[in-house]
Amino acid sequence: MPLLLLLLLLPAAMACRCELLPIPLDAGGLIPSHLDAIMSSRQAAGLALPRVLYTIPTGQNPTGSVMSQQRMREVYDLAQKWDLVIIEDDAYYWLQYPHGPDNVPGLNLRPGFLSLDVDGRVIRIDTLAKLLGPGFRLGWLAAPPALAAKFGLYTSGISIGANMLSQVMVYEMLTKWGRAGFEGYVKKLQKRYAANAAVAAAAAAESLGDLVEWQPARAGMFMWLKMTGATADSSKLIEAAAAAQVMVIPGHLISVTHLQAAAHKKFSQQQQYQQQCCSCSSSSAVDPQQQQQQQQMDDIPPSPYFRVSFVSVGP
Q1: Burial classification of residue 305, based on how many CB atoms lie within 10 Å of its CB (0-12 exposed, 13-18 middle, 19 or more buried)
Q2: What residues does 25 pair with on adjacent strands?
Q3: Which of 56, 176, 190, 287 is least surrounded by CB atoms within 10 angstroms?
Q4: Do 199 and 211 form a contact (C-beta atoms < 8 A)?
Q5: How far is it, in rounded angstroms, from Cα 45 to Cα 35?
Q6: For residue 271, how many other CB atoms are within 10 A of its CB?
Q7: How buried is 39 (Cβ within 10 angstroms: 0-12 exposed, 13-18 middle, 19+ buried)?
Q8: Residues with Cβ < 8 Å from 92, sequence gap 6 or more?
Q9: Residue 144 CA to chain centroid, in angstroms?
Q10: Neighbouring C-alpha atoms within 13 Å toward the C-beta of 270
């Protein structure tokens, strides 16, 4: 869902002339020193400073990284320093299993950025998609009251609100479960994902050996692997993986650089189509800007990284 959300938002971001800046990650998530360095360098160069930081702190898609509370504090302090709004997309929040399938946390979960917020700069997005099922199409947002009200108006304008039947079904189910029943369900889900993560790691160790490197998953549903060869290109794995019924997503396809170039191209095509419709133009000339954007996509170097999902369908 977060990747899909990003793909949907990118064209809108392009229309607003937004610039996306990737922040390096490690196994502990977004690296605060890199965020600070990027902001400092842009300030020194007289460039516009970012206003919004989008992050997935738990089971990050695609890397599976998990931010500690200490690192979240460091990132929040930088958000205060640089006056950044934090969009905390925590779709995998309930899927935490830091100690494996035999010792899952249930509802005793590591809190997120919202728990640190003292000046109304965190917008937290939660969803039932990874908890109960994507078909419910239900989620919620926590933000300062004035901002939450604007989101409410926007939602009413584009969808008239979430599906009523889904809301009633989930309400009745959670009411019947109670807290104890809900925690029992969450624990089963955490055990299933933790077991799947262990199976995936064991399979990688047995079949891939020294060909790849990875960090054990502690939350979410993804493994992020790096091929160790000097000229490794993960895009070459797609056909072989598909034949083995394994979905592999090469790293370059979900890099900010590639996604931004693709969004630029789509936005330009939409603009060109609208202009042709308005002017009834029948010209088939190739737009130089589109050529440049296609070249940018073609010039993105191969990536040694790739993502594998060990999705569970439920306990």
Answers
A1: buried
A2: 30
A3: 176
A4: no
A5: 16
A6: 14
A7: buried
A8: 56, 58, 59, 61, 130, 219, 220, 221
A9: 22
A10: 10
Residue 119 tokens, joined: 């000046």
- What pTM was computed for the model? 0.84
106: exposed, middle or buried (C-beta count within 10 Å: 0-12, 13-18, 19+)?
A: middle
Q: Which residue has the tokens 């299993």?
A: 97
Structure tokens at 57: 């702190």
| Whether 109 contacts 96, CB under 8 Å | yes
Tens place of pLDDT for every residue, the chain, 315 residues?
455 555 556 666 666 677 888 899 999 999 999 999 999 999 999 999 999 999 999 999 999 999 999 999 999 999 999 999 999 999 999 999 999 999 999 999 999 999 999 999 999 999 999 999 888 889 999 999 998 999 888 888 888 878 889 999 999 999 999 999 999 999 999 999 999 999 999 999 998 888 999 999 999 999 999 999 888 899 888 888 888 888 889 988 887 776 666 666 666 666 666 666 665 544 444 455 555 545 555 566 788 999 999 875 444
Q: Where are the alpha helices (DSSP H) in the chain?
A: 2-15, 32-44, 69-82, 145-159, 164-207, 238-243, 256-279, 288-299
